[in-house]
Amino acid sequence: MNFKNVYILDDRAILYINGEDVREFLQNLITNNIDKVNENNSCFTSLLTPQGKFLYEFIIIKHKTGYLIDCEKSQVDGLYKQLNIYKLRSKVEILNLSNEFVVAAFSYDKFLTFDGVKDNPGFTLKYREDSILLDPRNKLLGARLIINLEKLYLSLKKLDLHDADLKEYYTLSHKLGVVPKDLNKLQNKLFGIECNYEELNGIDFKKGCFVGQENTARIKLKNKLSKRLFPINLINGKLYEGESIYNKDIEIGKVLINEEYPFALIKYLDKNFEENIEFKTKEAAIKIKKPDWIDG
What is the pLDDT confidence band of residue 295, given thresholds at 50, 70 and 90? Predict the structure, then answer.
């Protein structure tokens, strides 16, 4: 990521949640611990089905008396509705501020030049009253600026950052093994823990109950995690959502995201999965890279 590049993440949306019961409300739902979120720290988390399957993922940033939620734009309407379903009698207000706020990303090296920064994923500081945070999933994804749209370009000018091609950011994310877009294609297709949320700092197993906690904890404690979400590198051909991936005649996974930045759910502990070989689908030849930050 170039030192002076900034990527306007126009595929992201912002919700704002506040109210008397906001902390307890979020704590009972999300896979991470809301107590980690304060003026100096933000967190990555997810919302699962009661069975522990993936529904939504997002970043939470402290803002005034409540919290900003940075999520994929394709998921914002569904997330907004889901949070309102859970709201019941809780004293919380949920607002969609996507027309007012924008998310921009810039390099890890640039982030380290700010006064008072700490080299910790999720570390957050204020710049002209707006939040800048080191990506809580993986610091190599750089920093995120959450800012009012009206102030965006003046702030970028003061920071000496220049608008760059968003595809560069998507490509970096895919290379690192972090899904950059098309998250709706994962809904109900795999368990949250299979999305590598533990390694991406998105699950806190010490916090107590959250939606989907029982199955998530069981998979973790009984070493039942045999499949993971890995990026696909297309060699040639065409991928189709939901199709099987083979090593010769042995199925080792399924394509879940088949578009420009594809991902598959892979039986990564299977003896037929080897990183360096070429796999086949019906019409494609592919390679699958296990991200460096995953052990085993």
Answer: confident
Neighbours of 119 (CB within 10 A): 10
Confidence of residue 101 (pLDDT cuts 50, 70, 90): very high
Task: List 208's β-bridge partners, or say none.
Answer: none
Interval 135-175: pLDDT, tens: 999 999 999 999 999 999 999 999 999 999 999 999 999 99
All domains of the chain in start order, with CATH: 5-176 (3.30.1360.120), 183-288 (2.40.30.160)
Residue 285 φ then ψ, to 5°: -110, 135
